[in-house]
Design brief:
One of its GO terms (molecular function) is N-acetyltransferase activity. Keywords: Membrane, Transferase, Transmembrane, Transmembrane helix. It holds the Pfam family Acetyltransf_1. By secondary structure, this protein is α+β, with helices and mostly antiparallel strands. It has one domain: Gcn5-related N-acetyltransferase (GNAT) (Aminopeptidase). The protein contains 8 helices and 7 strands. The longest helix has 31 residues. It is 48% helix and 25% strand.
């Protein structure tokens, strides 16, 4: 098995970091679309449109076409939301990784390398709402290099960094559609402490729930 090296971010890593983040976020479009389709309001709209057109037109073709167009529009809506989030992130912290993570106290950004290729990323910084905690952010590993323990190693890196700086816990946020991430964090000892919906119209429409997880370092026995 190829060796995995975890090191601090360098300026030469910027394009690889942005690519890994973009690809990782884009992977959630299909699962988010399916999540949207499972919501009762979505199913009600599709059913009402189908039944109304079926009754008025006496034809299968028109309602099927209309529902198909609605589904295509819904998927494009999900794509738009993710692209907007990706673009916003690339213009903010990921456009100034040094200023956001490397030059500030108790913050850092790491990359995982395999055979001199950056294949994973993670960062942490103080959480504004929980002064005793550092927040794990931007965790992502290329699909081609998953199953090698890279994500677990990155989690342990953040936990060790947090403990060394005297913080009580690591917290992070993930979404309802990121089921693999939830399993990983729970395996690493994180506990889900809160569920909430972002107060934005798009999140409310899709019932896009976020989960807050916490790793209490006094109880943690897996992060070393």
């Amino acid at each position: 098995m190829a060796s995995i090296q975890i090191r601090r971010y360098q300026d030469a890593d910027v394009e690889a970091v942005k690519e890994i983040f973009t690809m990782g976020m884009s992977e959630h479009v299909p699962s988010t679309f399916m999540h949207l389709l499972k919501q009762p309001p979505t199913q009600m709209v599709l059913m009402c449109v189908f039944c109304a057109l079926m009754t008025s037109s006496k034809s299968f073709l028109l309602p099927i076409l209309a529902v198909t167009l609605l589904l295509a529009g819904a998927r494009q809506f999900v794509v738009y939301i993710f692209n907007r989030y990706i673009d916003t992130s690339l213009r903010k912290d990921l456009d100034d990784i040094n200023g956001t993570y490397m030059e500030k106290k108790d913050s850092c950004f790491w990359v995982a390398e395999v055979e001199d290729r950056v294949v994973g990323i993670v960062a942490c910084l103080p959480n504004e709402n929980a002064p005793a905690c550092l927040e794990l952010k931007r965790m992502s590993v290329l699909r081609s290099h998953r199953g090698m323990g890279i994500a677990k190693t990155l989690c342990r890196t953040v936990a060790g960094f947090t403990r060394d700086r005297g913080y009580a816990a690591v917290i992070l946020y993930t979404s309802v559609v990121q089921t693999d991430a939830q399993k990983l964090y729970e395996h690493m000892g994180y506990e889900k402490i809160r569920e909430f919906v972002v107060p934005e119209m798009a999140a409310k429409i899709t019932n896009f729930t976020l989960f807050e997880y916490r790793l209490d370092l006094q109880k943690d026995g897996k992060s070393d």
